[in-house]
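Researcher: Here's a chain I'd like modeled. Treat it as a single chain, no partners, no ligands.
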Amino acid sequence: MEDSVDRIAAQWKRARPDLDMPSAQVLQRITRAYRLQASSFEQVFARYGLSWGEHLVLAALRRAGPPYRMNPTTLFDTMVLSSGAMTNRLDRLEEMGLVRRLADPNDRRGRLVELTTKGRELVDEAVVAHVANEERLLSGLPAADRVKLADLLRKLLLSEPFLSLDPASRAAATGAAERPRRRRHATEPLPRLSGATRARRPRA
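Model: Modeled as a single isolated chain. Structure tokens:
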């Protein structure tokens, strides 16, 4: 059996026989599998009026258990999203009546995101279709092979080269809580530099 990655590797072997391609073949197949499954996921969630990213927000709140409520920072930490993407998704989900934003009783300036009853009912229905689709996508592998593949991918993602690229995974592995850096608003003044800091600042 040969796939497109095999053909690409064969072409490189002819063009650059000095290159070692097995690692590239593994990562290219992971990338191709991701793109295909992402397209499949979007098709499933589109039936519920959701994007895959919006489902991830609802699913994170649902997994948290009653009262299905999280602060935005904790919610952000469960997902691979930019803060801008998170805000946009929360805005849309709130417009759809699937989540609501509440004042945090433990933080006068804080906010909480809560899953509504409508949101919980929708995500409970969508996740059944999602899991069925995942089973379909992996139906070409026997159960034992799925377990073996899952173990190998876990080992890969917990290896140092990947942990060093992923702040969230590194924080989980070390127990350190990392938070995204707050972006300066365009109207905020730049921080004042001390004399020592100004002296070290390179000239243009």
